[in-house]
Fold Heat shock 70 kDa protein 12B.
Amino acid sequence: EARSQQTPSFSVVVAIDFGTTSSGYAFSFTSDPEAIHMMRKWEGGDPGVANQKTPTSLLLTPEGTFHSFGYTARDYYHDLDPEEAREWLYFEKFKMKIHSTSDLTMKTELEAVNGKKMPALEVFAHALRFLKEHAVQELKDQCPSLPERDAIRWVLTVPAIWKQPAKQFMREAAY
């Protein structure tokens, strides 16, 4: 039986790979699904190396607001005066903490390098928001006619070995 092809309501699929060590995204337009576009080179990183991923590192101000993610966060944090750095909240390689936490809840906290704690949901939401905004900006640069709303289908990878609470945690952070 022949099925009629339904036109998807979205025009691009963006897949975010939120990794333990590094993170990135790729996207594909529904008009040409075989052409997969990797994200542009990240700012920072090692000179002369094209980086398709950036470190999964998040820097929040002493007040707990978003400052930067990836190479920018790593470099800015490491360039801070050691006395000043103690006030900033720097998180790196934090993804597996939600997998290894046996009593994971939406109230679980993560510890920054300086020992200060913050809700893990907030930490993940900051990181995912950054990746989303980075992807949206790249899409706008490449396709200015892309509609603002409902044009993107988002995909967020999670390890198959994760238990349901960790998967649900990532879903909540993405929302």
In short: The longest helix spans residues 120-142. The mean pLDDT is 88. Residues 31 and 45 are 33 Å apart (CA to CA). The chain has one domain: 12-174.
